[in-house]
């Protein structure tokens, strides 16, 4: 089973490259807390996804330089340590990039950087996924970042700059992909469900689309909002090698969907309007 490798890049206090501009908005206690809250939101959004997280300890220290000299509460280093302690690893402790290779971005040399690390790992591994979580870290707005290695190989990876891009990328590139399985118990298109069983109001193809972006507190049970029917849809993990789920619709006032999930889905819907 494949896995996604997600690399975090933070804003810098001292720019390491011209396209790594420091985020002036972070040099303020209130805005710093907003910056960190936003990052926490990103990570919570993908907490049930199958991924390995990587960060750069040097990049982290660079981001924290300003706050090491200014008293900002709660302390950013403590917050970031809590955020990263479980599923995130400092790639410098097991770096794969080669000091003898030439890495370039926009035809300009780059070394000892997260971009080099992603590129080298992806070059060596054609099975797993690689992407950058660019948290207001650089001025590159392109959806794809391209790195040349020794003028022989070119490696591309996604530049995920906000929550919408992050969640959609997982929906499209999740490893393994979720597969919707229609079962007779719930029927299809609001028809054929067993007596007393909640119906599947939409088609299996529409259910697949809703499954791709469904959220939950664990992968065992996922939820989404079906705007067409103004109902929630519940997906149950079938615990198969193929990663299949079956699903059914429930009323909007149901207690079957946790309140925290309802709030997250309402927030996502609000962002789409």
Key terms:
single chain; 273 residues; alpha/beta; five-stranded mixed β-sheet; 7 helices; 25% strand; globular
**Strand order in the sheet with the most strands:** 3-2-1-6-8-7-4-5
In total, how many beta strands? 13
Largest sheet geometry: 8 strands, mixed
SSE series:
EHEHHEEEHEEEHEHEEEEH
Which regions have little confidence, pLDDT < 50, spanning 5+ residues? Answer: none
What share of residues is helical? 25-40%
Strand fraction band? 15-25%
In angstroms, what is the radius of gyration? Answer: 21 Å
Structural class: alpha/beta
Average pLDDT confidence is 92
Shape: globular
Q: Work out the helix count.
A: 7
Taking the alpha carbons of the first and last residues, their distance comes to 36 Å
Describe the structure.
This protein is an alpha/beta fold and 273 residues long. It contains 7 helices and 13 strands. The protein has helices spanning 29-45, 57-69, 76-84, 114-124, 163-173, 204-212, 259-272; strands spanning 4-10, 51-55, 88-90, 103-105, 108-110, 129-135, 144-149, 153-160, 179-180, 215-218, 221-226, 231-237, 244-250. The strands form 2 sheets. Strands 3-2-1-6-8-7-4-5 form an 8-stranded mixed sheet. A 5-stranded mixed sheet has the order 9-13-12-11-10. Helix 1 runs parallel beside helix 3. It is globular and about 65 Å long. It starts with a strand and ends with a helix. The mean pLDDT is 92.
């Amino acid at each position: 089973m494949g896995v996604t490798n997600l690399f975090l890049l933070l804003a810098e206090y001292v720019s390491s490259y011209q396209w790594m501009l420091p985020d002036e908005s972070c040099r303020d206690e209130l805005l710093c807390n907003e910056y960190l809250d936003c990052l926490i939101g990103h990570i919570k959004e993908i907490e049930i996804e199958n991924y390995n997280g990587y960060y750069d300890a040097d990049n982290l220290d660079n981001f924290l330089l300003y706050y090491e000299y200014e008293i900002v509460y709660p302390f950013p280093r403590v917050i970031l340590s809590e955020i990263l302690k479980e599923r995130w690893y400092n790639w410098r402790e097991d770096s794969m990039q080669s000091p003898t290779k030439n890495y370039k971005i926009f035809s300009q040399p780059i070394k000892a950087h997260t971009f080099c690390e992603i590129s080298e790992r992806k070059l060596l591994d054609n099975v797993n996924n690689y992407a950058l979580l660019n948290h207001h870290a650089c001025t590159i707005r392109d959806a794809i970042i391209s790195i040349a290695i020794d003028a022989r190989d070119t490696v591309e990876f996604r530049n995920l700059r906000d929550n919408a891009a992050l969640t959609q990328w997982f929906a499209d590139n999740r490893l393994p992909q979720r597969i919707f399985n229609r079962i007779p118990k719930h029927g299809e298109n609001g028809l054929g469900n067993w007596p007393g069983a909640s119906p599947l109001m939409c088609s299996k193809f529409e259910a697949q689309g809703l499954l791709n972006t469904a959220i939950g507190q664990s992968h065992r049970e996922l939820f989404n909002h079906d705007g067409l029917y103004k109902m929630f849809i519940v997906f149950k993990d079938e615990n198969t090698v193929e990663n299949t789920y079956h699903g059914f619709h429930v009323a909007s006032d149901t207690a079957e969907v946790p309140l925290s999930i309802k709030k997250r889905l309402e927030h996502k819907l609000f962002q789409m309007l």
